[in-house]
Design a protein that fits this description.
This protein is an alpha/beta fold. It contains 23 helices and 14 strands. An 8-stranded mixed beta sheet has the order 7-8-12-11-10-9-13-14. The protein has a 4-stranded parallel beta sheet with strand order 2-1-3-4, sandwiched between helices. Strands 5-6 form a two-stranded antiparallel sheet. It is globular, with a radius of gyration of 24 Å. The structure holds FE2/S2 (inorganic) cluster and magnesium ion (MG). FE2/S2 (inorganic) cluster (FES) binds next to loops. The site of FE2/S2 (inorganic) cluster has 10 residues, from loops.
Length: 600
């Protein structure tokens, strides 16, 4: 099919070229001098007049990889094959950098950069003569930032994931990047690993170029980009170093030129049905708890109504099919070889759990692309009737502590169910006392001294979008070393107004909105307060009277409200003033007024 497409496209000296967006720069009959001025600097590295005036599509390659963003750095190599695809199909490639986002080393947190990168990319796509764009995605927030930007701009666009790293190993044991950190931290806390041992163990999870090889936020968001229809079918899961990855880069370049000619835009692909498909897929792959935030943000920018009740209603009742860390055993290579996302979609299609007629980047439907492509490897991708877990999606919770929070149920362990969910007569509810931390610094300072036993819920507040600008990934907290040494068999539950790493497996209640820094009721919580969590009723309540809540609120507000840490950079300050809550995607609300600006 690629060959057919190549031939068709390379011969297409478009009459439609005159209607291309880029012609407004390079082919202005009203002002030839202006056209010449727009064109001439693209010639100083060798493009010719013929090329720029040929009516061939100008295709951007939005480059998110650099030495500063190592997860995506291999894109600097893959971009060459993208260019060759674009050129073969008769387009002209212009590669440019986007604001880098590196999940694991950006302080205070990489989510802060998602909206910055979004704003930057919208500005570039608007300001320059692009007819379409290839989005080089990968590390966690690079994917949503780019999809948010093309949702706003609405010019033809397609994602190319950098792909996961190869599997990590310690002798025979698989070591998953990101996920290994939580294990290593526990072993260090109990004294089983020394400082060098921790370093060795963690870095074994990073054996090659590519993004995290676990089903963390990177694998999740790229699976969802494909599920939305915004990437070539079968592309998201290909490991970075595999030859198929570079071949996919070439095919993606060919495809974007076809999309420009067909005028197939993000608004044709990212419909309400597409978002519902992405929610269903997220449950089946055991996707990250960051996915609702990012998917809500993309939906907001394209103008599709989507909320967390949709996540619970569509996603919660579906099963987990993929046996991949952190919810399961395997890593990216097994996932890809077992059939990748299409094998998951095939299972969901059989059950009528996807909108099969949703359009995708290649002009075909989800059903055309994925129906019948079941996995041959039932160890890694389970059949729908024999899943890893049933009802594996997110719960949307509310109560007197917050209006909205989510919980990933696929990581609730059997040990936790057996030992924690037993104090009430309801097997789906528990009551316990809280220990409250104001930010990660407070947690590290007090975790070993605080009054914590095996029936405590750890609360992390002051780490939402305003409180810890960008919303820190710190809600998943490790129990104190002494409890781990005593043989605690499960992760303690956590609640917080921040996020949790997609590579973590704690039973946590996350993204609580409104956050403490917006004076939500998490701000009035005190050490030792009792909380009741009822998963059936989707309720989390602080067990104190209405009157006591009112009194504490009055005291909080008379003291000037919750004290968040200071902003340290100008952008942190802008971010705090403009940002909305995690429950609504943490977007700059003002930016959602600019949907589909390229058409204006
Ligand atoms: Fe970049 Fe995981 S830290 S993909
Ligand atoms: Mg993360």
């Amino acid at each position: 099919r690629t060959k057919e497409l190549e031939e068709k496209l390379s011969n297409l000296h478009t009459e439609s070229g005159k209607n291309l967006r880029s012609a407004r720069w390079f082919d202005r009959p009203d002002d030839r001098a202006m056209s010449a001025l727009y064109a001439d600097r693209y010639m100083n590295y060798g493009l010719t007049t013929e090329e720029l005036l040929s009516g061939k599509p100008i295709v951007g390659i939005a480059q998110s990889g650099s030495d500063l963003a190592p997860c995506n750095q291999y894109h600097t190599t893959l971009a060459k094959r993208v260019r060759e695809g674009i050129r073969t199909a008769g387009g002209i490639a212009i590669e440019f950098p986007t604001h880098p986002i590196q999940e694991s080393s950006r302080r205070p947190t990489a989510t802060l950069d998602r909206n910055l990168s979004y704003l930057g990319l919208v500005e570039l796509l608007y300001a320059y003569p692009f007819d379409g764009v290839v989005l080089l995605t990968g590390c966690d927030k690079t994917t949503p930032a780019m999809l948010m930007a093309v949702a706003t701009m609405n010019i033809p666009a397609i994602c190319l994931n950098v792909g996961p790293m190869l599997n990590g190993y310690d002798r025979k044991t698989l070591i998953g990047s990101g996920t290994v950190v939580w294990k290593a931290r526990e072993l260090h806390a109990t004294g089983e690993l020394d400082d060098t041992g921790v370093f060795d163990m963690v870095t074994k999870g990073t054996p090659s170029v590519g993004h995290c090889n676990t089903m963390g936020t990177a694998s999740t968001m790229n699976a969802l980009a494909e599920a939305l229809g915004m990437a070539l079918p079968g592309s998201a899961a290909i490991p970075a170093p595999y030859r198929e990855r570079a071949q996919c880069a070439y095919k993606t370049g060919v495809q974007i030129v076809e999309m420009v000619h067909a005028d197939r835009k993000p608004s044709d692909i990212m419909t309400r049905e597409a978002f519902e498909n992405a929610i269903a897929v997220n449950t089946a792959i055991g996707g990250s708890t960051n996915a609702p935030i990012h998917l809500c943000a993309i939906a907001k920018h394209i103008g599709v109504k989507l909320d967390l009740d949709d996540w619970d209603r569509i996603g919660h009742g579906l099963p987990l099919l993929l046996n991949m860390q952190p919810a399961g055993e395997w890593l990216g290579e097994e996932y890809y070889r077992a059939g990748g996302l299409q094998a998951i979609q095939a299972e969901l299609l059989d059950q009528g759990k996807l909108h099969g007629d949703a359009l995708t980047a290649n002009g075909k439907t989800v059903k055309d692309n994925a129906a019948g492509k079941h996995s041959w490897d039932r160890r890694t991708i389970k059949g729908y009737s024999e899943p890893m877990k049933r009802e594996a999606g997110f719960l949307h919770l509310s109560g007197n502590l917050f209006d909205s929070a989510i919980m990933k149920t696929s990581v609730i362990s059997d040990e936790f169910r057996a030992e924690f969910l037993v104090d009430t007569n309801d097997p789906n509810a528990f009551e316990c006392k809280t220990v409250v931390f104001d930010g990660p610094e407070d947690y590290y300072a007090r975790i070993d001294k605080a009054d914590i036993d095996e029936r405590t819920i750890l609360v992390m507040r002051g780490v939402g979008p305003i409180g810890y600008p960008g919303a820190a990934e710190v809600v998943n907290m490790t129990a104190p070393g002494r409890l781990l040494k005593q043989g605690l068999k499960y992760s303690l539950p956590c609640i917080g107004d921040g996020r949790q790493s997609g590579t973590s497996g704690s039973p946590s209640i996350l993204n609580a909105s409104p956050e403490a820094a917006a004076n939500g009721n998490l701000a009035i919580l005190r050490h030792g307060d009792k909380i009741r969590v009822d998963l059936t009723k989707r309720k989390v309540n602080l067990l104190i009277s209405e009157e006591e809540i009112a009194n504490r609120r009055e005291e909080l507000m008379s003291n000037g409200g919750y004290k968040a840490v200071e902003a340290h950079t100008p952008y942190q300050d802008f971010f705090r003033r403009e940002v909305g809550p995690l429950s609504e995607g943490m977007v700059f609300e003002r930016a959602t007024r600019f949907q589909r600006v390229a058409q204006n």
